[in-house]
Design a protein that fits this description.
three-stranded antiparallel beta sheet, alpha/beta, four-stranded mixed beta sheet
Amino acid sequence: MKQLIILLLISFNIQSQILKPSTRVVPIITQVTQQVQDRLFTEPSFQQPIVYIDFSPLFPGILGLTRKIDRGVYMVDLSPAFTNEELELVLLHELVHVWQLHTEILGSDQSFFIYRNIKYPFWFPYTLRPWEIEANEIAEEVCNPK
């Protein structure tokens, strides 16, 4: 029994958000991506989200998009029309959205986004959405520490 407990403790990874990037996306994932993961995803490994990341044709002007696929499973789509350097910050921004969704800080219902228990209509301006502002601030802070 003691050996089983030791084996479980050894295999227990405290911070291990599981990123599943397509091979085309791998060059975008950097050490900064790991810093965002370490900052946001602090629960035990068995509670970490699984995040699939791939390029996807998106509406012009949209660089990235996060979707909840199932409980604990998310998809981050990145526009292939931008450079890896531009998309690195976008990926960080989208990982903040994964965290927001995973921790239920952000959600939605039939007619509204729900952020920190406040409802916002879907037409609420993008630049004023507090969850977008938060995602930008965290991504920028990690990329450009003071």
